[in-house]
Amino acid sequence: MSWRWALRSWRSSRARFNGRSHEMNFSTAPCGALSSRTSISPENPTKVLVCRDGGYLGARRLHNIRYQHDHDRSSEEESLDPFSLVADELSLIADRLRSTIIAEVPKLASAAEYFFKMGVEGKRFRPTVLLHMASALNMPIPRPVSNDLFSNLSEELRTRQQRIAEITEMIHVASLLHDDVLDDADTRRGIGSLNLVMGNKLSVLAGDFLLSRACIALASLGNTEVVTLMATAVEHLVNGETMQMTTAADKRCSMEYYLQKTFYKTASLISNSCKAIAILAGQTAEVSMLAYNYGQNLGLAYQLIDDVLDFTGTSSSLGKGSLSDIHHGIVTAPILFAMEEYPQLRKVVDRGLKDPADVDVALEYLGKSQGIKRARELAAEHANYAIEAIDALPKSHDANVYISRRALVDLTHKVLTRTK
Amino acid sequence: MSWRWALRSWRSSRARFNGRSHEMNFSTAPCGALSSRTSISPENPTKVLVCRDGGYLGARRLHNIRYQHDHDRSSEEESLDPFSLVADELSLIADRLRSTIIAEVPKLASAAEYFFKMGVEGKRFRPTVLLHMASALNMPIPRPVSNDLFSNLSEELRTRQQRIAEITEMIHVASLLHDDVLDDADTRRGIGSLNLVMGNKLSVLAGDFLLSRACIALASLGNTEVVTLMATAVEHLVNGETMQMTTAADKRCSMEYYLQKTFYKTASLISNSCKAIAILAGQTAEVSMLAYNYGQNLGLAYQLIDDVLDFTGTSSSLGKGSLSDIHHGIVTAPILFAMEEYPQLRKVVDRGLKDPADVDVALEYLGKSQGIKRARELAAEHANYAIEAIDALPKSHDANVYISRRALVDLTHKVLTRTK
C-alpha cells in the first residue's frame, strides 16, 4: 500500500469526515494536492510548488513575493524572532496562568502549578502561535464611536484572546500530566515528571483540576462556540492517546490511521484554538477556517518532525535520537514510509517490536530506505499548507498584521528546521 | 474540641467563604442553628425542631402541615415513589446519554459506555432529584403568545433541564472512573471496575472523554453561568478527593475538614446541578439558591448516612458494614463524634489506622460512644435543611409542582432511612 494512496485515502476520508464539525479540513487550501516531483523538502525550502493542475506557484514562493523584506532579514533577525516579538505578552500570560490555577487545597495547588513555574514552562510554542494569530487577524473593524471606545474594545478582545492562549496551555499541561501517568514517564521538561515526584493520584487529579479550571475560564468568555471548540480538542487528545494504544496490526501499519492519530494528539488543540482566536475576533467562517487550517497543518508538520527527531536526534544520522517511540512499539511516519519500500518490514513490525533484535532490524530497513526523507517531505508539505492558509487571509496594510503573519510563516520554518 | 464547635466554626468559615461563588451557603436557611435537644433523629422523623431562638417549628412539621395528604400515603405509595414518578423520563435520559457518549475510537467507546449500559446505571439518584427539581420549579411564566408557543417553550426548557441530568451523570461517572483508578478499586455497581476490566489507562482516558463530552453538552445549552456551575462541581470533586488523601493528623481529626471534604466530594455536584436547573428555568437568584441549598443538604445527609452504613451495613449493628473507610485510614463522622466523647481515641487515629489492632480499638470506642447516633442526627439535620429549602419555594397550586416538591421531600427521607 503506497503512503500516497494512504494519504489520498486519508484525505478522502477527511472529506467524508467534514460532515462533522471541527474535524480536519483541507478543502479551503488553495491547492488541494501537490504532485510528488514538486513537493518542497526542508533541505531546499525555497523550491517552488506546482499543483497537479499546473496553475499554482507554491505558497513559499507566493510568500517570498509578498514578504519582499525577507532579503534584509539578517539585520533584524533578533527583533523579528516570533518568540521575542511576543515575549512580554508571554510573561503576562504566564503570570495570569499561575494565578488562574491556584487551588484551595494546598497539595493540589502544588501539583497543578508544577509545570507553570518559572523555568519549566516549556517552549510556549502554542501561546506564541496564538498571540501572532490574534494579531494576524486584526483586520479593520467598523469605525468606533470614539477613540477611547476603540481602544477599550481592542484591549478587551486582546485579553480574551490571551485567555485562549492560557486555556490552551492548561489543556495541554492537563494532557501531559495524564499521559505521563499512562506512560509511566519519569521526566518531562528536564525535571522529574509529576507522577514520579508526587505520585499518580495527584497527577490524575491535577489534570482533572486543570481541565475544570480551563472549562471555567472558557465559560467566562461567554462564547459557546469557543467552549465547544476547546472541549472538542480535549476529546481529540483522548482519541489520539487511545488510538496510539492499539495493538491491531492493520492499524499500526496504516498511514491513514497514523495521520488521524497525529491530528488528534497534536494538531487538533492548536487548530481549534487558532479558530477560537478568529471567532472571538468576530471573523468570518472563511477566515476562521484559514486560522484552523494553519494550526492543523502546523501541528501535523510539528509532529512529523518530532517523529523524525525521535530517530535522528540533533544530528541527521539515524539512531542518534532517543528511539523512544520504536522501543515502545509505536510506529510513526518514517517506519511507515520504509515499509512501503521494504514490504518485508511489515512482518517485523507486526511482531510488536518488543524484541530489541526486531527493533534493530527495523532500524536497518529504515536506514537504507527513504523513510526519514519522506517523513520530512510530508512535514514540509503540511508546513506549506499552513503558509498557504496565512497567504489566503484577507489583505491588510497594517504593519503589525504584516509582522505577525510573517511570524506565523517563520514558525512553520522553525518547525521544519528544529533539532529538538 | 467539640464537634458542635467544629460545626459552628465550619459554618462561620462558610460564611467567610461565601464571598466566593458556589460555595456552601446555609445563610438562606430559615433557621441558622438548631439546638441539640431538638434535632430530629431518623428514629423519630416527626419530632419537632426548635430553633435556638425558640420561635421555629421545624421544617418537618411545617412540611407535614403543608402536605396534609401525607396521612393517606399508603394507598398511593407506589404511584408516588419518587423514582417511579419519573421512570419514563429516566429511560429517555439513559437512552440519550448512551447516544451522547459514543466515541469514534472503538476501545474508548467501550470504556466510556461501561457504566451507562442497561443494568449498571446505578440508582440514578441524581437524575431523579434533578427531574423533580425541574418540575418543582415549574412556576407560572408570563402568558405566552399562543398555546403552541407555550408548549414548545416548556418542552424546550424540559429538554435542556434533562441535559443537566445527563451532564451530571457524565461528570459523576467520570469521577467514579478516576477515583477507582486512584483507589485501585476492583468492583463498582456489582461488576468489575473499569480499571480492573480494561486497565488504568483506558479508565483515565474514558473519564477525560466523559468530561469533554459533558463540556460540549454544556456549551450546547448556551448558558455560561451553567457551564461555570458544572465546571466548579468538577473542580470540587477533585478538591474533595485530594482532601481525602491528606495524612495530616489535625486535618484527619477535624469535623470542619471532614464536612468541607464531604461537601466537595458528594454535595457540590448535586447542589450545583440543582441550581443549574433553576437558572435554565429563568428563576430568581433566591429560588436558584434554594435549589442549591436543597441539593447541598441532601448531598451532605446522603454522605453522612453513607459513612454510617460503612460501619453498620444493612443492620444497625456496628461492624456489619464493609468497614472500607476505616480500613483505608479514612476518618468519617462517626469516629469524629466518638473522638469527642473519648479523646484518647485521637492517639489511635493519629497512628494512621494501618494496624488492624488499631482499627479494632477504634471500633471498640465507636461502639460505646454515641458516634453512629450523632452522625445520623447530623444527617437528619441536613435533611431538614433540605426540606426547609423546598418549603421556602414560592407557593404554587399546580398539582405537578406539588407532587414534585413532595417527591423531593420524600427523597430526603429515603436518604435517611436507606440501608444500602
TrEMBL record, chains A, B:
Presence of the UniProt keyword Mitochondrion in the record: yes
GO CC term, one of those recorded: mitochondrion
CDD domains hit by this protein: Trans_IPPS_HT
InterPro entries: Isoprenoid_synthase_dom_sf, Polyprenyl_synt, Polyprenyl_synt_CS
Superkingdom of the source species: Eukaryota
Record's subcellular location: Mitochondrion
Any GO BP: ubiquinone biosynthetic process
GO molecular function annotation: metal ion binding; prenyltransferase activity
PANTHER family in alphabetical order: ALL TRANS-POLYPRENYL-DIPHOSPHATE SYNTHASE PDSS1, GERANYLGERANYL PYROPHOSPHATE SYNTHASE
Family: Belongs to the FPP/GGPP synthase family.
Protein name per Swiss-Prot or TrEMBL: Geranyl diphosphate synthase
Organism classification: Eukaryota, Viridiplantae, Streptophyta, Embryophyta, Tracheophyta
